[in-house]
Write a structure and sequence with these properties.
136 residues; alpha+beta; Peptide Deformylase; 3 helices; 5 strands
């Protein structure tokens, strides 16, 4: 189900709780909403659709990826990025890393570990910031 985009900064500034198995429907809604906004958005966190759970979704080489409870476990190659956000107005400055390693659970709650770099790494960092209540 496509959900409305949250713009309330006081809500977005709250840290999200861990996702649990009953939150899989939120992950589906997140992907549906991301697809509906694909012309303006490449990644979303659950708080962007009004749910304070640690769930992110993003497009990676034409495929939508969902991460439940993602955590960046390693990072390298610090740089400064200028980013926009569907939930927030304007362009904001953020510290990002060229390469990251992430541990997360898939929608079946199996533990996964993956490495990303470049644009996809930047998207994931942006969405994990959302999970942590960091306004980008």
């Amino acid at each position: 189900m496509i959900r409305p985009i949250m713009h309330d900064e006081s809500f977005l500034a709250q840290a999200s709780a861990d996702a649990v198995r009953t939150d899989v429907s939120v992950a589906r809604d997140l992907v549906d909403t991301l697809r509906a906004n694909k012309n303006n958005c490449v990644g979303m966190a659950a708080n962007m659709i009004g749910v304070l759970k640690r769930i992110i979704a993003f497009e990676d080489n034409g495929k939508y990826v969902v991460m439940m409870n993602p955590v960046i476990t390693d990072k390298m190659g610090e740089y400064t990025a200028q980013e926009g956000c569907l939930s927030l107005t304007g362009i904001r400055t953020a510290t990002r890393y060229q390469k990251i390693e992430v541990t997360y659970q898939d929608t079946m709650f199996r533990m996964k570990k993956a490495s990303y770099e470049g644009w996809t790494a930047q998207i994931i960092q942006h969405e994990i910031d959302h999970c942590n209540g960091i306004l980008i």
